[in-house]
Amino acid sequence: MRMLAPVPVPAEPSPPPAPGAEEYPALDFANSVVALPGGQFLDLIGTPATANQWLTERGLAPVDAGLQEMCAAQLRSLREQIRALLASRVDGHAAPPSALVAVNDALTRAPAASLLRWDETRGLHRAAAHPTTQILDHALAALAANAADLLTGPDADRLAACGSAPCTRYLLRTGRRHWCSTRCGDRARAARAYARRTQPQTQTQTQTH
Hints:
By secondary structure, the chain is an alpha+beta fold. 45% of the residues lie in helices and 11% in strands. It has helices at residues 25-30, 48-57, 69-91, 97-107, 135-152, 182-208, and strands at 33-36, 40-43, 115-119, 123-127, 159-161, 170-172. The chain has a two-stranded antiparallel sheet. A hairpin with a 3-residue loop joins β3 and β4 (123-127).
């Protein structure tokens, strides 16, 4: 049996959901990889177990879904494509064709409704073809649909990237706020204060040379 590599303990805890993430699961999904100081990353769907937990906490999979690495990899792949679409929307660039294909593929992987079935015991009834194996497809479709709603709806104009390095999360902007958490806001203010303190010294050194 293949052993999974241990997940490193992050240097600091994961931040709370970014503004808008509770309203849009796709935004929370895009932010499920967290950049930490020192070049470290915390991937909340980095293993089958954590991916299953993430989906379960959002009502997208049962606790005992039994996701495998292939399933977790598909989730991570869709996440990157959704992030690419968010980045293009925030930056005002054309949407990457590969990201559009990936999201549209996820949208069409799961049937919109249970199919009509018949057997001798139950007669006519409606049910999914393979409830267990379709868990991932339904989760991918739900996240892709939510991302499409966000990117084409009125809240798309509020999309922003967190303005506090090294954070790479996205948020729905409220007012002039451009950071995703209090921690990032504190970090941004500290960076600005440091820049103000060092700028006069740097200018003086430049003038004396």
